[in-house]
Structures are given as C-alpha cells and as structure tokens.
Amino acid sequence: MKNLISVVGPTGIGKTRLAIDLAQHFNTEIISCDSRQFFKEMKIGTAAPSEEELAEAPHHFIGNLSVKEYYSIGQYEEDALQKINGLFKNHDMVILVGGSMMYEKAVIEGLHDLPEANAGNQEKLQKIMEEEGIEKLQEILKELDPEYYSVVDIHNHRRLLRAIDIIWQTDKKYSEHIAVSQDGRDFNVIRIGIEAPREELYDRINRRVDMMMEKGLLDEVKGLEKFKGLTALNTVGYSELFKYFDGEWDLDFAVSEIKKNSRRYAKRQLTWYRKANDIHYLQLGYSQKDFEELIQWIKAQLPK
C-alpha cells in the first residue's frame, strides 16, 4: 500500500519547511495543493517556496501555470492524481502540502458530480449582487447553508454564486454535496498539521506580509495590473494593492488590509481543519526530537 502524507494548516504556519523535512527524510517528492502557488507570476504574494527550498526536494505544481491560463479544481484533481500515481512507481511515500482546503480534498477524496451552473440562477444572483452588493449574497448563503458559509471565502463572489446556485438547483446544502466521500483512492492518507496559539500565528502572518513587501510585492503586483480582472488575481495580497494603484487606498492602509484579510483566511482554514478528526498535530517551532517522534508516529500508521 502506498502512502500520501498531507501537510495541512493555516497560511504562514510553516508547512513548506515541514514538507521539505519529510520529503528529505523519506527521500521522496512534494505535490503542492496551494492553488495560488500554481501561477508563476505570483511568487512573492503567495509565499511560494524559494529557489533554495525548491532545490532541497523536488516540487510539483509550483509556478507551473500563467495567470492567463484557466485552471479548474477538476483539472487539478486529475493532474495531481496522475502525478502522484506516477511517483508511487518509485516511492512508497509522497508528500502533499498546501492550505487550499478544497484542493487537498479533491486529491484525497475526489470531487463530486455537481450540476453545471444554471444560467437563470446565475443571472438572478448577478442582478442581486449588482443591486444589493456582495453582502446580500453572503446573507443568502448564510441562511441556506451556515456550515459552508463558515469556511468559504465570503469575499469571492464566484464561490458564493456557485454554492447558492447548487443549493437552489438541488434543494440540498452545498456543504452536504461536498461532504460525501468518494473512494477510488488506492493509497493510505496520513494528515499532519502544524498548530500554534492564535496570537502567535497572527503575529507570524503580519511579519510575513512585511517581508513580502520588502521582497518586492509592490512591483510584482504592479506588473500584473493589466490582469487584475482575472480570477487568479482576485486574491489576498493582490486585490488590496490594486486598490492602492487605483488611488482608492493609501499604501499603509492597503498593507494593513492584506494583513487583516490574511488573518481572516487563516481563521477560515482553522475552522475547516478543526472539523477533521484525522489530523495529527505538531506544535509550531517543533524540535528535532519532536520531528523524530513524528516519524515514528507516521511509521506506526503505515498499513501492515
């Protein structure tokens, strides 16, 4: 039986480092399920692994696309499984890492056959959004499916439209649709998380944003201004700085909004992971001894 070790946790907690340490220990390769790190033009703002880190262990799905390319979660599921099964020919263990909750779920469980978008519903929702703002969509979703509302990126109108449309079409909560587990995964999954006190995590996130600015995030975003309407760029770290370039916000305020929105995203990730009862946690700042104990724990989980 082959094994997929999935390293999860909120943004800024140190998943990249742990994944590399595990890949080196098991002499294997890393699959990223961070949906923002797929795009090669967004290295700084997505905290993609550095050249040094990429050299420490082979990584896949990092900077493999351009923001101009459309790439769906369904395509990712297919590509990632193909890559994982290919790696299993030479490795008993493969590492999956990233904080994009649905992308991890797509790999370890599979996506579900949801109906196509209903044009009438989409039009109706679009109209509601134009007339009453995204807040109205948030309100509708919260009422129909509080569970999904608690984990979705409520500022991403496409996600809201999609979920409400599906609920209207099927008379079933969106969270129920995506909770149905699918089999057809002939590998064992071991999920490992990193956790830290919330203040410490938020402090790390704030410092990380300052570091991104020092590394040249402003120039990175400036270079992508002509693509700001694309889905890939409708994301934390980019949408705030576009507002600065548009003259809507001053720079200090834009940076403080990036920090705030990053902390909010981390909070949603924590809500999502807390619902899982199959994640084995390491504390942030783990020692070599903790790491060795983790390796022993992993070995004990392997199918006999």
UniProtKB/TrEMBL annotation:
Catalysed reactions, as listed in the record: adenosine(37) in tRNA + dimethylallyl diphosphate = N(6)-dimethylallyladenosine(37) in tRNA + diphosphate
**Keyword entries, A-Z:** ATP-binding, Magnesium, Nucleotide-binding, Transferase, tRNA processing
Site features described as Interaction with substrate tRNA, chain residue numbers: 100
Entry EC no(s)? 2.5.1.75
Please state the span of the N-terminal signal peptide per the UniProt entry. Answer: none
Q: Respond yes or no to whether keyword Heme is given for this record.
A: no
Q: Which GO terms describe its molecular function?
A: tRNA dimethylallyltransferase activity
Question: Where, in this chain's numbering, is substrate bound?
Answer: 11-16
- Which cofactors does this protein require? Mg(2+)
Spell out the residue ranges making up region: Interaction with substrate tRNA. Answer: 34-37
Q: List ligand-binding residues for ATP.
A: 9-16
| Main EC class the enzyme belongs to | transferase
Q: How does it assemble?
A: Monomer.
Q: What does this protein do?
A: Catalyzes the transfer of a dimethylallyl group onto the adenine at position 37 in tRNAs that read codons beginning with uridine, leading to the formation of N6-(dimethylallyl)adenosine (i(6)A).
Q: Family, per the entry? A: Belongs to the IPP transferase family.
Name it.
tRNA dimethylallyltransferase
**Source species:** Chryseobacterium gallinarum
- The protein's gene is named miaA
